[in-house]
Amino acid sequence: MKRLLKQGNTSKRRHCLLALCLLCAANFVVAQEQAGSKKDVPLKQRTETKNVLMGSQDAEVSVQAVSTASGDRLQHRPVFNMESTLDGVLPGLYISTSQGYPTENRSFRLRGNTPIILVDGVPRSDANIPVSQIESVSVIKDGLGLSLLGMSSGNGVVYIKTKRGGRTSLKIGFTAQLAFNQQIFRPEFLNAYQYAGLLNEALLNDGKSPMYSQTDLELYRTGASPYTHPDVDWQDQLLRNSAPIQQYNLNMSGGGKVARYFIDLNVYNQDGFLKQDNSLNSYNTRESVKKYSLRTNTDINITDHTLFKVNVFGQMYRETTPGKMIMSSIYRDMYATPNNAYPVFNPNGTLGGSPIHQTNNLYGQTTMSGYYLYPQTDFNIDATLEHRFQGALKGLYASATYSYNSSYRESLNRSKNLEVWSYWKDPTDPNSAEVYNQMASAGSQENKTEYSRLNRMQYLDFAIGYDFNIKKNNFRTKILYTYNDYTSSVKNIPLRKNSVGFRAEYDYDKRYMAEFALAGMNLNTLKPGDQWGIFPSVGAGWNIHKEEWFNIPAINMMKLRATFGMNGNDGTGAYYRSSSATLTDYYYTYLKYYKSEDKNKIYWGDKVTEQRTLLEANMPYLSKWEKITRWNVGLDLQAFNRSLSATVEFFHNTYSDVLQKSVGKDANHLIGLDIPKEHLGKYRRSGIELDVTYNKRFGDVSFVANANALFYKSKLLANGENAYPESYMQRVGEKYSQIFGYVADGLFQSQKEVDDYLATTTVEGYKPQPGDIKYRDLNGDHLIDGRDVKAIGNNAPLIEYGVYLAAEWKGLAFSMQWSGLGNSQTTTKMMPFAFNAQNGYGQALVEHLDSWTPDNPNARYPKVSAGSNSYNERTSTFWLQNSSYLRLKNVELSYTLPKVWTSRIHLDGVKFFVNGYNLVTISGIKDRDPEILNFLDGTTKAYVPNSKAYNFGINIQF
Q1: DSSP assignment, residue 85?
Q2: CA-CA distances (angstroms) from residue 122 to 157, 447, 503?
Q3: Interior CA angle at 384 toward 382 and 390, to 5°?
Q4: Of 2, 10, 7, 19, nearest to 315 (Cα)?
């Protein structure tokens, strides 16, 4: 910290000093109080509550659709992002992973949409906080529960509640973990001999001459000339089999009547898979992530009825990657470069290269080209003042919260160019001369800051409420105001929101419940006069078990509830976290501007930038937000002395005025502009959600089982499409994310079959050959073109589910968490030679050996082609496959030492644990990760594989 105060900029120093002052003040108040107290005051039993917007509710009378998981269930996971611990845990919440690199955010999907994140009620950019600081995680899913967010309520909420101190003596906990990370799936590529043979076959199929002679093939097979005919397994050359993860956590909590505190310090260090040659450099070139997090949550009772709460969170992390290349580029080149491209080193020790495949040596790029450093500092502070009035005003309360949030990130380039040479010598003539040609020269070293980015957000809310009772009639009301101001140094245009809201709750004897909420929100970037929106919602509930006539002893609780709400979505996903966006990607759209490739704006007549490629014209009609109506009906049940609990939810959501491009309309080819976005879209999503938990103790054995599942369907209602010539081509009426493609009738097996087909059918722009895919002429016009495309794949409800099992016996505990996806299909395909690093023909997979030949008529792939074959690559039923999967997200075995042992060494508890993350995957796709099916996206980027981990740790309580 001292070093940071000396070296950091003024803003960073202020943040650190403020955090230290608050931490010291909290500890001083608690220490003074405990010094004068004789004994601890025990915690009182609390009523079970639900986390809702702007507060909490008694779970017994709440009618909102909220699901909650305890933070204890998420502990001890070897993961960088907290999101990774939630997969399969909460009903309706699905976590998808498209990139295995640790700093990549996982994607939340709540009932099919990307929710926003609230931490202790305040909007945050992501959920990148240590799980050791989390008390609980809730998801808010219905229109009533989301209504107070106004235009930001459209996609649901993930609500994270952090831990706080209690009225106890000082408690200290320490946890140390060491994990070994392994990549789940690494593509299996062809060796040099297989690659040369298959490429020759592909060239012959394309009517071209083979590239490699029989002598070349023999040299590749035998490995007799490794410099002129190399066979380099680039994954083996560049990647190691496992990488360590270290994680340490120290937390303290305690307090008394006047003040309570919770302090958590977390250190996370994840090493990468790239190999490093320490003899070449004195610095780290391997990809790695180091993260340091500190949180202090303090509660101070100014009076018996006035509470002041301060949450301070600071986080610094440093991400390192090899110089000159980002990680996706490294994996792209590693996957795309054939084994025979060039040797790692030439006979004279210089780096090998090739004018065809790569002018830069992959090994040199990853180990010898310097490094990129991405330091980032996040700082959040929340201050809340709450007061409850007494006397004649008893029941009246007020609160105010102010939050400041900043995130600063830099990119520091410490890289250099490398000298690369190609090598040739006639392998059949030992007396031939060696020939070296320089492919790349060593250039000047770079030492610069390429960019810096500062994002800042200020949040403010005021609330006043009044709770009162008239006999068995209970009333709870609240009026609130919120203000949100977000500025990014990328755009430098503030995004501001103001909202006012009202919520009223009523219950009669906790038997009959009703709730009403109304919110109005203003967004500054919309056209004046169109900046305000109104969002009403209502709900009702009935605790059936409280009726006198209800007499089923086995059932302890039965509640029926229903809600309706009108919500809005202004695209806050782009502003609180990276996701598909709407309005917040477009600032002041009612003004005349054009959007360019790098998101700068080109103004006509006033100011012109250097951008030459225009994408979208001005959009003065973007003056409204996406509208959502939500119906939700739920049944909550507890039975058998509350050992069994179950919840069933039925929901029906309609999304209208969705911002999108019109389907079927042409771009403006005169000036090269794309189709502008309009509020044209409308779709419906409905489904059933189940959550069942069984919790029972059998003597010394305690057992918990939980299963949750979401079954939902979607239907596209409008998208602005033109009328199609054939009814089966219509997108409207199909699933919102429906796959459209050709119907394939297998592969052509002979030239006669091709000739018979072409006698009655013409293929637009291509003449099929044996081994090509045979497409069906759906409309009977004897022409294969876009009019033969229809909805393909099943129309069954998508299923997202999770299963949790846990048992404990005399300190020995076991748990496992599964998650899965059902009724999912994909048309992902990986064609041989189609992806390449720079020039020439790219690599191919071992599975591509199963391509069509006359001797292999039932092949997995059509006949091979050298490069792209747009005819066979068309989306069709030939490529359709089941992408459902079941994955063991976490399994843990632990042992807690008996208290009689630990008390002898003055410890409250010692726990040893071992767990595994992502250890087992069951999928119909055997040679793919079901979450990263297309691991190489064309020629631009590749996806880092997902990882599994074996983790060992110890937790000590003082």
Answers
A1: G
A2: 11, 39, 18
A3: 170
A4: 19
Beta strand 93-96 with 122-124 is: unpaired
Buried b (16+ CB within 10 A) or exposed e, 205-220: beeeebebeeebbebb
738 near 843, Cβ under 8 Å? no
Dist. CA 534–CA 335, nearest whole Å = 52
Stretch (H or E) spanning 52: strand 49-52
| Core vs surface per residue 427-448: b (16+ CB within 10 A) or e | beeeeeeeeeeebbeeeeebee
d(CA 109, CA 141): 11
Domain 2-162 part of CATH 3.40.50.460: no
What are the residue ranges of helices labelled H in 743-873? 751-760
Per DSSP, the three-state class of 599 is: coil
Cα separations in angstroms, 140 against 81, 93, 898: 21, 10, 40
CA 832 to chain centroid: 29
Q: What is the pLDDT of residues 797-855, one digit of tens each?
A: 899 999 999 999 999 999 999 999 999 988 888 888 866 645 568 889 999 999 999 99
Radius of gyration of the chain (CA): 31
- Other CB atoms within 10 A of residue 818 CB: 20
Structure tokens at 288: 């790695």
Residue 561 · residue 542 · CB < 8 Å: yes
Give me 894's structure tokens.
Answer: 């632990």
Which of 274, 275, 200, 193 is CA-nearest to residue 226? 193
Pairing of β 157-162 and β 116-119? parallel
Instruction: Give the 3-state secondary structure of residue 245.
Output: strand
Quote the pTM value. 0.87
For residue 328, give every residue at least 6 positions away whose Cβ sits within 8 Å of its Cβ, in sequence order, or none.
99, 941, 942, 943, 944
pLDDT in tens, 63-115: 999 999 999 999 888 887 788 889 999 999 998 877 777 766 677 889 988 89
**Beta carbons of 894 and 910 less than 8 angstroms apart:** no
Cβ proximity of 369 and 323 under 8 Å: yes
The answer for residues whose C-beta is within 8 angstroms of residue 844's C-beta and 6 or more apart is: 189, 190, 195, 198, 199, 338, 832, 833, 864
Task: Specify the DSSP class assigned to residue 349.
Answer: S
pLDDT at 935: 63
In sequence order, what are the residues at sequence separation of 6 or more whose Cβ sits closer than 8 angstroms to the Cβ of residue 92? 67, 110, 111, 139, 141, 649, 689, 708, 710, 800
User: Residue with structure tokens 């005399």?
Assistant: 810
**DSSP secondary structure of 621-690:** T--S-EEEEEEEEEEEEEETTTTEEEEEEEEEEEEEEEEEEPTTPPPBTTTTBPPPEEEEEEEEEEEEEE
* Residue 8: strand pairing partners: none
